[in-house]
Amino acid sequence: MPKVLIIGATGYLGSRLCNVLVNSGQHRVYGIARNEAKAKSLAVAEVTPIICPDPINKPDAYLDAIRNFNTDIIVDVSGANQESAKFLADVKAVGQERLNKAKAAGLTHVPKLGFIYCSGTWVHGSSDKLVNDLDIVGPDSATPPAPLVTWRVAHENAVLAASDVLDVAVLRPALIYGGESTIWTAFILPLLQVSRDKSLHTVQIPLSVDSHPGLVHVSDVATGF
């Protein structure tokens, strides 16, 4: 039974991913929790909590869990922005340790530690033309990434470049909706407030009239892993 550690297990997508893996009955799921309250919520969801208050700057607790539980796969759905690079570097170091131990023991065929990073389609920028993952992304592409996620291109490349030590994959879901979906709060909340106040004031929503965003339900994203 594969052992999977989720970075971001208590978050919007991470909690759904944990549920999918647990409900499959085919995975043993671990999740990083920053405090006791988060740990209890994971335990209730049948996820083994790994308490690590500061996984970016003080990662020893979850790195030791990877070592001690002989974890197979790490999934980063933390949404930690540029700090995701620290997760990759730390997991890669543990993966290298595992390969070194195997080599010292005379083993020639040992599975690599797996690492999956959740990126997003915003790296493809904004375009009225169809794109797919065969289209090269970056600041020099025909549709450069949105400024907010320009850093992701380099991080995706770093994840893929770690394939000498880790078994890696990058997922790029579209704009996620469903459940609480706080990403949409800036668009929906003003409408809700006006409705509650029965106001006749004009509401301005930061959207383009001809915008056609790609959407995917959070449950479908979780299943995609």
Give a verbal description of the structure.
With 225 residues, the chain is of the alpha/beta class. The chain has a single domain (3-180, 214-224), classed as Rossmann fold. The protein contains 7 helices and 8 strands. It has helices spanning 12-24, 36-44, 60-68, 84-104, 150-161, 185-197, 218-224, and strands spanning 3-7, 28-33, 48-51, 73-76, 113-118, 166-171, 175-177, 215-217. The strands form 2 sheets. The protein has a 6-stranded parallel sheet with strand order 3-2-1-4-5-6, with helices on both faces. A two-stranded parallel ribbon has the order 7-8. α4 links the parallel β4 (73-76) and β5. α1 (12-24) crosses α7. The model has no long low-confidence stretch (mean pLDDT 92).
List the helices and strands and how they pair.
Blueprint: E1 3-7, H1 12-24, E2 28-33, H2 36-44, E3 48-51, H3 60-68, E4 73-76, H4 84-104, E5 113-118, H5 150-161, E6 166-171, E7 175-177, H6 185-197, E8 215-217, H7 218-224
Parallel strand pairs: 1-2, 1-4, 2-3, 4-5, 5-6, 7-8
Organism: Fusarium napiforme
Pfam families: Epimerase
GO molecular function, one term: aldehyde dehydrogenase (NAD+) activity
* Overall domain count: 1
Uncertain parts? none
Considering the protein shown, what is the CATH homologous superfamily?
NAD(P)-binding Rossmann-like Domain
User: What's the helical proportion of residues?
Assistant: 25-40%
Largest sheet: 6 strands, parallel
Give a count of the beta strands, DSSP E runs of length 2 or more: 8
Distance between the termini: 16 Å
Q: What structural class do the secondary elements suggest?
A: alpha/beta
Count of helical regions: 7
GO cellular component, one term: cytoplasm
GO molecular function: aldehyde dehydrogenase (NAD+) activity
Pfam families: Epimerase
Domain NAD-dependent epimerase/dehydratase: 4-224
